[in-house]
Design brief:
The structure is a single chain. With 251 residues, the chain is an alpha+beta fold. It has two domains: 40 residues; 196 residues, Glucose Permease (Domain IIA), CATH 2.70.70.10. The chain is 22% helix and 16% strand. It is built from four helices and nine strands, in the order H-H-H-E-E-E-E-E-E-E-E-E-H. The strands form two sheets. It has a seven-stranded antiparallel β-sheet with strand order 1-2-9-6-5-4-7, covered by helices on one side. It has a two-stranded antiparallel ribbon with strand order 3-8. Strand 5 and strand 6 form a beta hairpin. The protein starts with a helix and ends in a 20-residue tail after the last helix. The structure holds zinc ion (ZN).
Length: 251
């Protein structure tokens, strides 16, 4: 091989590497731009950042209902704290292409300390493999005759080593009647499949049934309901509610 061919090959390889690098940078840039654009369609991140960076700000950010529903609303807030991410919220780590399907309520306390209560009466189930979650089936108070579900998760230590669900609802519980306000467990920071720490909170969503009456996949927005009319609070991100969120009649 002549020196000239070698140099040409090396040059071609360097060119290819350069193109790959450019493509990778463009992908990273597009990803960052998507998160920045998406988070700009929401007002949820500034109060969440304040909640974690300045604990003294917490009393001024938290919605504290002590289990009392808003006037005329069927559901009571399942946990007190900052109602951070809302329904259909595109703020990071979500995006406009995959928005948040429920509410993230950030409690003030350590893992295992902030209580979580049933939002409404119904039949509670916990699948045998669920460490951090329970789900309750209800007759829909806003559309009687239809079955809906409320889902509560992150009730375990970050690594799943301890569940914070009360002993009354062991794995495998199937259709146990609970009243509104029944203690279900305590907020945790269970990360599940997430590689990053998530911070103490309750994730709560209202989930539709499938044709057989089973709950659908709550990770898809179209399987969930806007919780606003159930709680009597503006909980749909399209309202851009300031924090703390309180009871309202128009949402
Ligand atoms: Zn969530």
């Amino acid at each position: 091989m002549t020196m000239e061919v070698k140099v040409k090959r090396r040059g071609r390889r360097a060119h290819r590497l350069g193109l790959l690098l450019l493509a990778a940078l463009a992908l990273v840039g597009a990803g960052a731009a998507l998160f920045i654009y998406s988070s700009a369609q929401s007002n949820s991140l500034p109060p969440i950042h304040r909640w974690f960076s300045d604990p003294a700000s917490r009393p001024a950010l938290a919605t504290v209902m002590n289990g009392q529903p808003c006037p005329g609303a069927p559901f009571s807030l399942p946990s007190d704290g900052l109602i951070g991410l809302l329904w259909n919220d595109p703020a990071a780590p979500y995006t406009v292409f995959g928005t948040h399907t429920g509410l993230d309520i950030f409690g003030d306390g350590a893992p295992g300390e902030v209580p979580v209560y049933a939002a409404y009466a119904g039949y509670l189930s916990r699948l045998p493999e669920w460490k951090a979650s329970v789900i309750i089936r209800h007759d829909d108070p806003l559309q009687p005759g239809r079955s809906i579900w409320t889902y509560y998760t992150h009730m375990a230590a970050w690594d799943g080593s301890r569940s914070f669900i009360v002993e009354a609802f062991p794995p495998g519980t199937a259709g146990q009647w609970v009243e509104r306000g029944t203690l279900l467990g305590y907020q945790g920071d269970y990360t599940g499949n997430s590689p990053a720490p998530i911070g103490l909170h309750l994730h709560f969503s209202i989930v539709l049934s499938d044709a057989d009456g089973a709950f659908t996949n709550e990770a898809r927005l179209t399987n969930t309901l806007d919780p606003s009319p159930y709680f009597g609070m503006p909980l749909n991100i399209s309202r851009f509610p300031s924090r703390p969120i309180g009871c309202a009649t128009n949402f």
